[in-house]
Design goal:
The protein is of the alpha+beta class. 27% of the residues lie in helices and 24% in strands. Strand 1, helix 1 and strand 2 form a beta-alpha-beta unit. Helix 1 runs parallel beside helix 8, helix 2 crosses helix 3 and helix 8 crosses helix 9. The longest helix has 25 residues.
């Protein structure tokens, strides 16, 4: 019986050599890449889509979550993102973009025009000197003695490798970290099953709504459509679809595909449900091309941030980021005090030169449900980018980096923002 030989990834063409390679161009990845490049590191940002911003762009999630302290103090990169959106009149009540304030949970939702986020992020990255490689997947890693020597890429040039001193996994799925031998954290007995996804779909107002047959407003599995209504550009509005009661597993390839199929099948029914009850003059105007993923794989780090840490507002000697948002997992909500995120939760256990930031960082499920917001992910990315730049500059180990230097760099870059100083100081 014949077998297909495996391709050796050690003999592939070398794309180039960098100080730092960042895998994933969402808010965490952009925070990491821009922060590191601003510290004179040679940085490559690899993104599997053709836009930066992740859920904030391709996922059409035009909403920044904030709690105590508001959006201020999430780092210089995030402040610059907000400034860039304001330059396009794409955020802020003065530009018609709503800030929803929830008094019960003391949190805010700053809506923005997600269409402009890719423009802002790309120009910020290019201005900082970041090399961007779009439409490229991470498909492997060459590892020797616990260090990633090369990441294996696949795009229209087929398979190539890229070499770096430090790698940062901001894929949200821990793709590179797992290829390199990193361990995914197990299911969480406190909240079994992943945090369920949502999906953004859009309705357009028209004076000539199309004639539609009556459709029974229930989902394909008999569950009533559940959604919230969000603002969009004039004449449009967004529906945030929720499938909290479905048995969906977004942590596996087939599970994620099944979740996307479930969402797509529900879109016409959700649209008709809204038309019958709230918006007879509206018609379905499409949906986000990317699922509103909330959890995939959490990677074990040197420290696992727990919900007990968050509830206690724990402070860490190696704190490099912080969170203030509520627990937000399926239908579970809980107010949390400000808590710190340690550098050790960004270090991949068993891999010497890889960090994780964003949705795949080392945390239990309920802690992740707070820290997964875009602003906090961006701040984690900036911390990872700072630590990576310090490591590459010193030609040293990530675990030899002084967390105090990371904190000082973040605070200094943010012009000693009082919110950041307050939450990051020991």
């Amino acid at each position: 019986m014949s077998t297909t030989p495996r391709i050796s990834t050690h003999n592939l063409p070398l794309l180039g050599e960098y100080d730092i390679v960042v895998c994933g161009g969402g808010l965490a990845g952009c925070g990491a890449a821009i922060q590191a490049a601003r510290q004179a590191a040679r940085v490559l940002l690899v993104e599997r889509l053709e836009v930066l911003g992740g859920l904030g762009s391709a996922g059409c999630v035009g909403n920044f979550c904030a709690a105590e302290g508001g959006l201020a103090g999430q780092g210089r990169v995030f402040d610059d993102i907000l400034a860039g959106l304001r330059a396009y009149s794409a955020i802020g009540e003065e530009n018609g973009w709503m800030i929803r304030r929830n008094k019960t949970y003391r949190r805010e939702n700053w809506t923005f025009d997600h269409r402009f986020l890719p423009l802002v992020l790309q120009e910020m990255a290019l201005a900082a000197g970041v090399d961007i490689l779009y439409a490229t997947d991470i498909v492997g890693a060459n590892v020797e003695n616990g260090r990633i020597q090369q990441a294996v890429l696949h795009n229209r040039s087929l398979m190539q490798t890229v070499r770096a001193a430090v790698f940062i996994d901001t894929t949200g799925d821990g793709i590179l970290a797992r290829h390199a031998g990193g361990e995914a954290l197990p299911d969480d007995p406190q909240l079994p099953g992943v945090i369920k996804p949502s999906n953004m779909m859009f309705m357009r107002q028209t004076d000539r709504p199309a004639a539609r047959p009556e459709v029974e407003p229930v989902g394909t599995d008999g569950v009533q459509p559940d959604y919230s209504v969000w603002p969009d550009i004039p004449g449009h509005l967004a529906l945030k679809m929720k499938l909290f009661h479905r048995k969906l597993d977004t942590g596996s390839g087939q599970g994620y595909s099944d979740a996307v199929i479930a969402m797509r099948r529900e879109e016409p029914r959700f649209a008709e449900h809204f038309r019958q009850r709230q918006g007879a003059s509206h018609v379905f105007a499409g949906a986000a091309p990317m699922l509103g993923l909330r959890e995939s794989q959490r990677i074990r780090g040197d420290c696992v941030l727990t919900i007990a840490d968050c509830r206690a507002g724990r402070r860490f000697a190696d704190a490099v980021a912080y969170g203030t948002f509520t627990v937000d997992a399926n239908e579970t909500a809980e107010i949390l005090p400000p808590y710190q995120i340690p550098l050790r939760s960004l270090l991949v256990w068993g891999v010497d030169n890889c960090l994780v930031a964003g949705r795949c960082f080392s945390a239990d499920r309920l802690a992740l449900s707070s820290a997964r917001t875009m602003a906090t992910c961006c701040l984690m990315g900036q911390a990872a980018g700072t630590a990576a730049a310090l490591t590459a500059r010193a030609d040293d180990s990530l675990r030899a980096v002084d967390p105090a230097l990371v904190r000082q760099s973040l605070i200094a870059a943010a012009d000693k923002n009082q919110t950041m100083t307050k939450y990051l100081e020991e």
